[in-house]
Amino acid sequence: MEPPPLLLPPEHPSSDAAHSNIPPPTMPPSSDIESDDDIFEVDEVTEDRLAQSWDLTLVGSILLGKPYCKQAVTEALIATWNTKFSVSSLYKDTYMFHFQHAMDMQNILGEGPWFVAGNLIILEKWVASRSWKFEVTDFWIQFHALPEEFMDLEIAAKLAKKVGTPWKVMLINGFRGGQQLCYLRARITLKILKPLKSSIMLKRRDGTQSIIEVRYERLPLTCF
Question: Of 14, 37, 61, 198, which residue is 20 to 30 A from 173 by alpha carbon distance?
Answer without folding.
Answer: 198
